[in-house]
Model the fold of this input.
Amino acid sequence: MNARWVGQDVPRVDGLEKVTGAARYTADVKLPRMLHAKVVRSPHPHARVRAVDLGKAARAPGVRAVASGQDFPFHVGIYLKDQTVFATDRVRFVGDAVAAVAAETPEAAEEAAALVEVEYEPLPALLDVRQGILPGAVLVHPQLGSYQKVPWITPEAGTNICNHLKVRKGDYEAALRGAAHVSENTFVVPQVQHVPMEVHVSAARVDLAGKLEVLTSAQSPFTVRHLLCACFNLSHGDVRVSVPQVGGGFGGKAGINLEPIATALALKIPGRWVRLLIDRAEEFYAAVVRQGLVATLVTGVDRQGKVVAQKMHYLWDCGAYGGYGVNVVRAAGYTCGGAYEFPNVCGDSIGVYTNRPVGSAYRGFGMQEIHWALEQQMDMVAHELGQDPVEFRLRNCLGPGKRTVTGQVLDEHAGRVDKCIHKVAEAFRRPLEEKPGLLRGRGLACAVKAPAMPNDAASSVLLKFCEDGVLEVLVSGIDYGQGLRTVAAQFAAEALGLPLHQIRVRNLPDTDLSPYDWQTVASRQTWATGNAVLKAAEKCKAQFFEMASQVLHAPVERLALEGGQVVDRGGQGSVPLTRMVMGYQFPDGHTIGGPVAAAAHHVPEGLLFLDPDTSQSAKPVAKWTFGAQGLEISVDPGTGQIQVDRVVACYDVGKVVNPGLIRGQTFGGVVQGLGTGLMEELKVDALTGRVRNASLVDYKIPTSEDLPGELEAHFVETPQADGPLGARGIGEHTMIPTPAALANALFDACGVRILDMPLTAEKVLRALQAKRAKE
Amino acid sequence: MLRRFEYTQARSVEEALALWQGSPDSRYLAGGTDLIPRARATGRAPARLVDVKAVPELDQVRALPDGGLSIGAAASVARVATAPEVRQRFPVLATCCQALGSYPLRQRATVAGNICNASPCADTAAALLDLDAVVVASGPRGVRRVSIHELFVGPGQTSLERGELVTAIELPAASAGARGQLGRLTRRQGVDIATVAVLVTVLPAGSLRHRVALLSVSPTPMRVAEAENLLDQKGPDGAAEAAAIARAACRPIDDVRGSASYRRDMVGVLLERAVHALAAERGGRGA
Done:
């Protein structure tokens, strides 16, 4: 197709409402007679809950409802139902919800929450993931064996292991024995927080007829509805979930979060809206975080510099609950080898409970964490062999005809990491200028990610025309900045030959009114919703052609869509779409057709489960997006501070749908990657289990002042076979390689390796001093 | 959680003092950028806040007849940072004001509030210490002038007496024209509390006396007289020695921003760099 709209740098269709403040977010919605909720949270990392007395709180001024685990001992969770709405027998982290109150004002709710009396019996806490797998470790979930779960999650009852994925390919042990060089290293990634601009907020009401309505800042209204129904034993027919504009999620609003607590309170006081808006401190310690990782890699290489044996042991700190995090563990397992072809693999991805904040999805879904290890390891091995890290990568990377760790043979549509590496290496040919007093260096890292989702994860859309010819596109993916509304409009415009201004994408989804979509996660929306839009557009086109065929007395095969008209390519006639959007009326008054509308869906095709013992599978995931980033940095040898001067990113995205949006995604991902690489870390006190930096004063993320001096984004376009016009996902990939590239650049600049993220100035300085002391 | 409190607004210093007396647990409120977040975070708010921003004379930045400068207690950090008399005659203070917080925060926060809060990392304190500022306070027992060197007692503690209201901060004429170099180490490029800050100032021609102030490395913002004396004697050649003295003199702690040992090391590095930068600046001017 000679694309007219797809590939064009069209501005965001929702730009105006965002910059003018017209966009309405959940917390902006003033609901009639709304009550305000406050959660009572555990001050202990691990304790038995002896008693919860809500009496004083219930009698406090302005209080309308109170609830605790006694009322709602229901389990909730997307993949593993290991959490309850409120703690019942025990609390498992500082911040675990024990009870909640709803009152007429936020202040009354806070005051009443302080009156809830909880009797705790503190238990020994497990705060270090490495302790969690030792014999005799404190058990965070003694009932682990009894929890409901999806079949492809494998918790081990009687341990802290909430999921374990094993990857076995070839003969690792034999290959390692034959290796000419072996390297083993352990890398550490701390828990970090998403820090969305908009904190978590959910409101719920049960109307007097018994219908539950939920308004929430979430990444999927449908998954929230599905999980709420499972939790409270409700019919999907009696629950309505809608999502206004979302001010950032980054995975933290995937699955289900505050909705059950708001619902529990709403059930206690039918007729009243109850809104739960947490504060920034709660966002840091009580909302979900990214899981921590301890990764041990063993690499065996032959004399030619080809990796022959690769062992990967990933120990994930899932925190107190693993409802969502178990799938990060799984994704990290089947992607354990990153962008490389390893012929003999022993991979273990193990999720471990601790009494720390709850791990969950976070942009990249485990990939940045494992790439921190993999991409440093590749660099280290290359240097140990005296080889160029770029050449070493090219010799070992995946590509068409190569076999992934799960045994999938990549075809010519899979995307080309080698081309991305070449592009970055090319940009690196420019000599690195000296800067007085600073150490300069450059580093490269690759990235790969596949969407981690159920094999039947669907996106559906509804296209319908208005009387004046405006096309409404109803999608249920959330546009929280990545540009879904804009690309959905571009695909619709492309397929129907309509100008963009004649298209409105409605994406404030409401389960009562909108077509089904699984979730806005996994970098899947452009791909899945894009496909669905194209399919629905074809159906609309067929309806127009059927009418036009009768109007023009021409067979459908002869018809074409051109400039808002259906044209008979074999004759003279044409008929404008606007004459047909509500059906076509002939001069004598008889009418054919009717309002043009069509629904369509996209579901990944041909996905196969992993073998339970080896994780081998010919097609475990829908697609792979590969890429590479190169960073040029300056290191201050006196303070250890790193300045990022230049970032070159290249991804094989199949098709650039919108150059401006994809540049934005790339730069945003790079900056978020630099945040985790340079400064972010949730500091959990080793004794009390409290987060010591639960504020924006003490937990820093980059600002515009931290932007690299130069940012370049390049793209390779190897079309995805099942992608809309060849496109594949990119949203998460942009932050995956950044910290590893930073660490590799640090080594290039000054010869020091830091294996635990982030690369704070203090760590860099101490490493430099240790190196000088050795010399 | 922000507890309930009584908000009152004074129109004169006398009224402010009276309002303070009227409640057993009062606090003066200027910018509120420390007071309100702390009240929210700790769940403890004073019973009464006495807002002094509407007291007309407290808003002024004005030259004193003897060549000094008076900064009203309600003048915002942004106002002080951009005031021509500050930029031209006391540029060191403008530099420290610009380093504080973010653009919106500087519009709200005040220099007086910054020092009354007595945080070890109070950015403006470095300049006020180096410039030998005097704090003017009104209280139940009349007006008192307190040297900045006697103001800080401990973290969050000052030598101000109960009920005393800082009305102005005065910079002496002798400090006018002083130039300085601020070395400020943060976790990101901007909008961050200093992990360590060092301000080295040289008083104007004639005296050429050095001043060295340190932030975030002791219970209070501090000066290092011994390092100053050494720099007075040896100039830039004494930088390394002065750095060693400052490293020994500071008393840093471990916290989420950095360890005590890193802070101590950075005091040395930043001090040396500031001294050399000052010397280079002077050299550049052909002095």
Observations:
- Residues 448 and 626 of chain A are 4 Å apart (CA to CA).
- The mean pLDDT of chain A is 97.
